[in-house]
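Re: Re: ligand-bound prediction request (bumping)

Still looking for help on this. To restate: I need the protein modeled with S-adenosylmethionine bound, output as structure tokens. Inputs repeated here so nobody has to scroll up.
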Amino acid sequence: MAGMLYLVPTPIGNLEDISLRCRKILEQADFIAAEDTRVTLKLLNHLDIKKPLVSYYEHNRIKSGQIILERILAGETCALVSDAGSPAISDPGEDLVRLCADQGVIVSAIPGPCAVITALSISGLPTSRFTFEGFLSTNKRSRQEHLQSLLKETRTMIFYEAPHKLPYTLQDLCKAFGSERKISLCRELTKVHEEVIRTTLSGALEYYKNVSPRGEYVLVVEGATPLMKEPELSLEEALIHVQKLIDQGFSRKDAVRQVAVETKFPKNKLYDAAIGKSESLDDQSGS
Ligand code: SAM
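Reply:
Sorry for the wait, this slipped through. Here it is.
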């Protein structure tokens, strides 16, 4: 009979966040697949658990995934852990889950620490609908494409970010969403220096002019104000919305770009109308 795969979440800072059930699964599994065996060994030592470890990370996931699958099919039970938090969430695991599920292996996920949910809960921003965006790419083009795809996003958006990239990312978020968009910067969650800075994108940029970002961050960003009640806006309404975005801190160019995405009006014509060059855009909108 085949064994099974357990996804075991581990603390994102505070070791006391390991649950009784996670501990039990780690004790009972035949082996543990770990992102970094040295990190996991420290946790196992803390829990006084001795267990064979297999390395499973981004760059060996194909070869190691196959070995893990074969052991499970041969009847062993595997507990998968990442360095911190829930496996498969911006961490290795997604491929292993798919591989095992495709082979009919039972996969069970134990609920537990996860930075995205912890941050969302304390952000003070709407939690009923949200979207997890993971890390923005360091590649300029895919980063811009990612941000462009979020211009109309009305749900709360959650990003992971490394401290050294934070100022750069805040600038890009500000450019895309406008300086007055709310953001909660959730730092060092569950650790001694846990901190939540609830501000606006321009407020965050200003703050980090004088303070060096340190530790781990989750950025929770307010969604866009829903724009269209009707399927189409008139030019006058579109221009009112352009002005609203400018009042919220967008440059005229960015405000026009955002409204153009959401309406029938071409960007250059909307821009001309916004600076008063054209009063008759309604007639030209089809062109
Ligand atoms: N699988 C993990 C989870 O369930 O949250 C996420 C792993 S991802 C490689 C690491 C990122 O998660 C960090 O760069 C940071 O954005 C976020 N993160 C992890 N622990 C955190 C903490 N204690 N406080 C704030 N952010 C954290």
